Give the backbone structure.
Amino acid sequence: MNILILHGPNLNLLGLREPEVYGKETLDDINNMLHAIARENDVELNIVQSNHEGMLIDALHEARTWAHGVLINPGAYTHYSYALRDAIAAIEKPCIEVHLSNVHKREEFRHRSVLAAVCVGQIVGFGWRSYTLGLTGLIGILSKSEPPT
C-alpha cells in the first residue's frame, strides 16, 4: 500500500510557529510518527512539504500512478484553493484532510474548507494526533474491499 502525505504552506515551521496553536512538535517529529505507523502496517509513504500550491498539485498528479490514498494538511490553502480541490477530485484516490488546530474554534475564515467535499473525511483539533488518526483511518479505508463513501 502506498500513501502520499502532503504538508502545505508554513508547516515546515512547526515547533517554532505559534506553538500554543500548532504544538511544539516539528514536522520531522510528525513524519517520524507517520513512518512508525506505516512500518507497523506495511505501508510505503511518500512525504512532500511545499509552500507552493503548484508543487502540491504536481505531487497529487504524480500520485495518480502509484498512490492508493492521500493524507493532506493543506494549511491555509484549505480555505480558498479551488485548484487543489480540483486536483484531489481529479486523481480519484481517497483523501483525508487533517489540521493540527480546531479550525472551527478559530477565525471565521478558517471554518470553511473548499477541499472537504472531495475528501473522505476531515480530522481537526488533535494536534500531531490529527495526522496519526488520519493515517490510521486512511489505512483502514484502503484495507477494505469496498470503496469509501
